[in-house]
Amino acid sequence: MKKVHSLFFELIQVSVGQLDCLSRGPEPDEWFEMYEISKQQHVEGISYQGVMKLFEFGLRAPQDISLDWMSEQETIRETNEMSEKPSALAQCYGEELRDLRQPSAEELPTASKLTIQYLYKQYLRHSLDMRLLMDYYFVLRKNSGKYESLKGGGLPGFWGVRRFARGMMWMLQEAMNLDKQYMPFEPLEIEGRFLLNDMMQEASKLERVAHVLFTYPLGIKDLRA
Q1: CA angle at residue 98 from 97 to 104, to 5 degrees?
Q2: In angstroms, rounded to a whole number, what is the distance separating the alpha carbons of residues 60 and 144?
Q3: Residue among 1, 7, 5, 41 at smallest CA distance from 24
Q4: How many CB atoms lie under 10 A from the CB of residue 166?
Q5: Which residue intervals of the chain are DSSP H helices?
Q6: Which residues does 84 contact at the CB level (< 8 Å), separation at least 6?
Q7: pTM of structure
Q8: In the structure, what pLDDT confidence band is assigned to residue 139 with cuts at 50, 70 and 90?
Q9: Residue 152 in this model has a pLDDT that exceeds 50
Q10: Buried b (16+ CB within 10 A) or exposed e, 101-129
């Protein structure tokens, strides 16, 4: 994993209150990369909250990047505030962050089995991103304990859905620092590491197709490489 990706995950954790500060100060080019990643992953509104929190630790993005980032955040905030149909999912984010979640055409379902199956399909469609991962993070925290039944086998093992779910837990642990008490499945690092690299666009098209073919063979018909 690229060093800047690790910094980006730390920034996300600062944004959502899971971390106070970054492990080190980013270089100017790393600030730019993190800004670009936040746009690719559709979390620029949330991530800029972390940028502002770092001010008190003397960590500041270059002014031009910070101004562009702030502008993106304000655009998202205004769009959400003007919406006639507020996002139900955004309410899971809490008062500070709910207007900073970038709107999406579809929303993550919050019913236990449907949530994982939706994320699984988005992965096969190459649409799994940090916004969806963050959505799931907040849903799990809000519904703490309600997914307990899934630990006993509430998901089908075929199609690799259970393996995918365990990989998602590792992703949430690595990228969002989610505590295990909120996890309905035991994290699986080997799967989570591949899924995270794929989400961050570090896996090649060939690696992605091969992974789906051997890990989720019945999902190959839905694959978008």
Answers
A1: 120
A2: 35
A3: 7
A4: 21
A5: 3-15, 28-40, 44-53, 63-82, 112-124, 130-142, 161-176, 189-199, 205-215
A6: none
A7: 0.91
A8: very high
A9: no
A10: bbeeeeebebebbebbbbbbeebbeeebb
What pLDDT shows up at residue 29? 97
- Of 57-66, 108-117, 127-136, which gets the smallest average pLDDT? 108-117
Non-local CB neighbours of 113 within 8 Å, separated by 6+ positions: 150, 154, 155
Question: Side chain identity at 218, as an amino acid letter?
Answer: L
Q: What distance in Å separates the CA atoms of residue 87 and residue 80, rounded to the nearest whole number?
A: 8
The two tokens of residue 114 are 């449907």
Give every CB contact of residue 106 below 8 A, 6+ residues apart in sequence. Answer: none
Q: How confident is the model at residue 157 (pLDDT cuts 50, 70, 90)?
A: low
Alpha-carbon dihedral angle through residues 90, 93, 95, 97, given to the nearest 10 degrees: -90
pLDDT attached to residue 156: 54
